[in-house]
């Protein structure tokens, strides 16, 4: 039996002898099936030629990716708190060195996801740390490609995970698209971990929001307004996106507010 990973998006599928017929994440209009058709990677083959890429990015926060990059180059973020560690988002594989390093830090209390493009190897990661709960928005449950009883869907707009760590549903990219508010981040000013619920753009101090990034499908003004209003209620100074270069180190609250106004004005 093989765990098949979608080559385009990185989603793991249930163990089977032959690859699945399709990937529901890639067939959704927010992703795509490549011109060569649906392609699969074998989890064990990936494990032999790839490793996790661990980078400490500030006290209590590490970025964990996969090198060489596969799928969309996602990264996970490990948030360390006195009450335990939370993995925000996920990557398609976990190697032994990383599993041991996290275990030495006390393991995981929970895995929380921004949206389906980062579900990837969440079941493998949960199982490796004793079956910790996988918190993902109930609204996006239909996009799960590897079902598991470890998945604990949540509803509403806020999930308190640990003291100083809460997840907020903003919507937009996906109905359940969420961000993680980490109160101790950025030297106590607060950090927001955003996946691509909020997308940091190349010009310093600006972000954007899309229903689909690869297919360039925008969002309506009312949705941008909802996202801006929900973000305004959170306390943070810095944001970390789903890729290593997607960071605004300070004054990120203002960056999101001005970017939302620019977006709404462009649609008018
Ligand atoms: Zn896929
Ligand atoms: Zn996405």
Number of domains: 1
Order of helices and strands: EHEHEEEEHEHEEEEEEEEHEEH
Category from helices, strands and their pairing: alpha+beta
Overall geometry: globular
Question: If helices are DSSP runs of H or I spanning 4 or more residues, what is the number of helices?
Answer: 6
Using the CA coordinates, give the radius of gyration.
Answer: 18 Å
Strand order of the largest sheet: 3-4-5-6-7-8-9
Mean pLDDT: 97
DSSP strand tally: 17
Compute the separation of the termini in Å: 53 Å
Output the CATH class name: Alpha Beta
Question: What is this structure's SSE topology?
Answer:
Elements: E1 4-6, H1 24-27, E2 40-42, H2 43-49, E3 51-58, E4 61-67, E5 76-81, E6 84-88, H3 96-104, E7 110-112, H4 122-128, E8 134-137, E9 151-154, E10 158-162, E11 165-169, E12 178-182, E13 191-195, E14 199-200, E15 207-208, H5 221-232, E16 238-241, E17 247-248, H6 252-267
Parallel strand pairs: 6-7, 7-8, 8-9, 13-16
Antiparallel strand pairs: 1-2, 3-4, 4-5, 5-6, 10-11, 11-12, 12-13, 14-15, 16-17
Helix pairs in contact: 5-6
The structure holds zinc ion (2 copies).
Could you list some keywords that capture this structure?
alpha+beta, 6 helices, Metallo-beta-lactamase, Chain A, binds zinc ion, 268 residues, seven-stranded mixed β-sheet, globular, 27% strand
Explain how this protein is built:
The protein is an alpha+beta fold and 268 residues long. It has one domain (4-267): Ribonuclease Z/Hydroxyacylglutathione hydrolase-like (Metallo-beta-lactamase, Chain A, 4-Layer Sandwich), CATH 3.60.15.10. The chain is 21% helix and 27% strand. The chain is built from six helices and 17 strands. The chain has helices at residues 24-27, 43-49, 96-104, 122-128, 221-232, 252-267; strands at 4-6, 40-42, 51-58, 61-67, 76-81, 84-88, 110-112, 134-137, 151-154, 158-162, 165-169, 178-182, 191-195, 199-200, 207-208, 238-241, 247-248. The protein has a seven-stranded mixed sheet with strand order 3-4-5-6-7-8-9. It is globular, with a radius of gyration of 18 Å. The mean pLDDT is 97. Bound molecules: zinc ion (2 copies).
